[in-house]
Known about the structure:
- It contains twelve helices and twelve strands.
- The protein has helices at residues 15-25, 50-58, 90-98, 101-112, 118-127, 136-143, 151-160, 173-183, 211-225, 242-247, 258-261, 275-278; strands at 2-7, 31-34, 38-43, 63-68, 76-79, 164-172, 187-191, 193-196, 199-204, 232-236, 250-254, 266-268.
- A six-stranded parallel sheet has the order 7-6-5-10-11-12. Strands 2-3-1-4 form a four-stranded antiparallel sheet, with helices on one face. It has a two-stranded antiparallel ribbon with strand order 8-9.
- It is elongated, with a radius of gyration of 20 Å.
Amino acid sequence: MFTATLIAPPGVLEPALVENLRNAWGGGDAVWLSPDEAAEFTLQAMPGNLWQVWQDLQGMRVDLVVQPTEGRRKAMLLADMDSTMIQQECIDELADVAGVGDHVKDITARAMNGELDFEGALTERVALLKGLDAGVIDQVLAERITYMPGGKALLATMRAHGGHCVLVSGGFTAFTAKVAADLGFHENRANTLLIENGILTGEVAQPILGREAKVAALEEVTAQLGIAEAEVIAVGDGANDLGMLGRAGTGVALHAKPSVAAQCDVRVNHGDLTALLYVQGYAREDFVTG
């Protein structure tokens, strides 16, 4: 048995669209998870024209996910930070303050698209921050970092149902510590910017946390919790997230680069982080927002 879930920005998902697709695929009765925003129905088999329909729905600002019904509610969340839990790339914001923003943003974009080696690209970008006052980190956190909509509801709801939440980033601990505390992650892992006498040295502590370290986090934390990797929902947007997205039971490409999204079966381009709750079968009334 499979479940098809349609998710759109509030007010966009039309009942007629859901009914037409349900009828075309011979699905079960539609269940509305949130009026005009998210609905689901069961299917006996995976549709042969799934990706053609998915592409058609993109033009209507509707995301479509079809997955096995059994086991879709997960026991662990493994999340990237930059452009996933927050709306920025923290190193780009630091570089902007340092006056090398455009150059660093270009390197970041190419690295996240998989065109550059992540570790080499990170080393190159951090070197451009050499000499920057470490106080700029707090300034960037206070003035430039904003959270992706739906993050707090995602964390609070999963925690309320016993979920373990891990933030794992190729960014920096100075940012993940704050983001993890604000949103309610149980733990966080990231790289450490080296600082001497209150000044960034232009180096990052070794070993660098990149793609393989995110996979290692998945392996280590699931082993500690005594759960299977199939019980994990992972979310990210960049090439260095593909390892963990591929290994997790549900790997969600959130507003991802096209080359990254193309390698994932679950793609959210129009919804926010609450889409991760809808694909697990949570209704809006089940969300914990406090």
